[in-house]
Amino acid sequence: MLCYTLLKFILKNNIKANKWGHKGVELINKDLRAVLEKQKYRLVGRHSAIKLCTWTKKSIRDQGFCYKQQFYGIECHRCLQMTPAVSWCTHKCLFCWRNVEQTLGTELPGFDEPGYIIDEAVKLQRKLLEGYAGVPDKVNQKKYREAQDPNQAAISLSGEPTIYPKIGELVTEFKRRRFSTFLVTNGTLPKRLEQMETLPTQLYLSMVAPNPEIYRKICNPSNPGNWDKIQEMIALFPSLDTRKAVRITLVKGINMVSAQDYAKLLDVAQPDYIEVKAYMYVGGSRMRLSIDNMPSFAEVQGFASDLSTATGYRIKDYKRDSRVVLLTRN
Predict the structure, then answer these.
(1) Pairing status of strand 324-328 against strand 273-278
(2) CA dist 165 to 107, 189, 213, 221, 316, Å?
(3) 181 burial type by CB count under 10 A (0-12 exposed, 13-18 middle, 19+ buried)
(4) Of 8, 67, 223, 233, whose CA is between 20 and 30 Å from 74?
(5) CA geometry: angle at 113 spanning 186 and 236, to 5°?
(6) Closest alpha carbon to 245 in 56, 72, 94
(7) Domains of the chain
(8) pTM of the predicted model, to two decimals?
């Protein structure tokens, strides 16, 4: 009778056991799973995901490379674009490419181990790359072979990565496997960053509003106190001993205002780099914004120039096709 009851519970809650031996109730229902898979996400365990980056695919075919390769020297054909919290976030940003209307909350009710997440993510990445083996004349074979063993993790795909309780251990495990790591956070969980024993190779802070009014409009925060949490994060930023960047995603007609107010926040954060980047009219954001909200590269350059004047940071580089300008302190 006990075995029958246990079997019913497992079937009802869709509990799975993996090779690491842990079990857990599925956290993403089949309808949302279907939506994510249609959008080319591949789910890893119960709450993580990967997606083959457009620039990874282009690089393998010698058709270009991403701005991170140009600015920071990573090899984008060996980049693993992933998230440990695909549908969990503390924001529902207007410009997010994810279907933020299907956000599952701000806390994970269960979680997988870092080693399992990385193992499965790499397996799925290799599987997604299989199609390129069938067109050898259109693929750089050296890059294709190297892509089988990624060595850079962009922990930024979707959701807020620091919601994953073991984000520090995840970065540690990536480092143990000789990955470089770029972690992007919206800054609403500063304690999680403060407690990390291993920091990523590069830590990004998304700064998309110069004041609380615009913040509430563009980010739709889950908690009214999130603006204060971001201020805590900005104050913490200089003490974090790693390379740091602030990314400002510009949405025309909403947050392309007051370079001076952004400068006041940046003066506290003291990042090594500032990325000024256009909002891109893709994915779920098309349900909330129009193509008119996507600034041109010239408009991005203009705002970056204003920001350079206000902060003293100098414009170091840019990538026109990504509509991004890089500013540096040194």
Answers:
(1) antiparallel
(2) 9, 11, 30, 20, 36
(3) buried
(4) 233
(5) 30
(6) 72
(7) 2-328 (3.20.20.70)
(8) 0.89
CA 34/CA 49 separation, integer angstroms = 13
The whole-number average pLDDT for the span 155-165 is 94
- The radius of gyration computed from the CA coordinates of the chain, to the nearest angstrom, equals 20
Q: Which residue has the tokens 């999680």?
A: 192
The pLDDT-based confidence of 220 (bands split at 50, 70, 90) is very high
Residue with tokens 């106190």: 225
What is the rounded CA–CA span in Å between residue 156 and residue 245? 14
**CA atoms of 203 and 181, how far apart (whole Å):** 8
58, 50 in Cβ contact below 8 A?
Answer: no
Summary mean pLDDT of the chain: 91
Total residue length of the chain: 330
- CA 238, 96, 179, 52: dihedral to nearest 10 degrees? -170
For residue 1, what pLDDT band results from cuts at 50, 70 and 90?
very low
E-strand ranges in the chain read: 16-17, 23-24, 42-44, 48-50, 79-83, 152-155, 180-185, 202-206, 243-250, 273-278, 314-319, 324-328
Residue 259 CA neighbour count, 13 Å, CB half = 16
Closest CA to 196 of 244, 240, 147, 137: 240
Question: In terms of Cα–Cα distance, which of 268, 183, 259 is closest to 230?
Answer: 268
Amino acid at 280: M
- CA 141 to chain CA centroid, Å, is 28
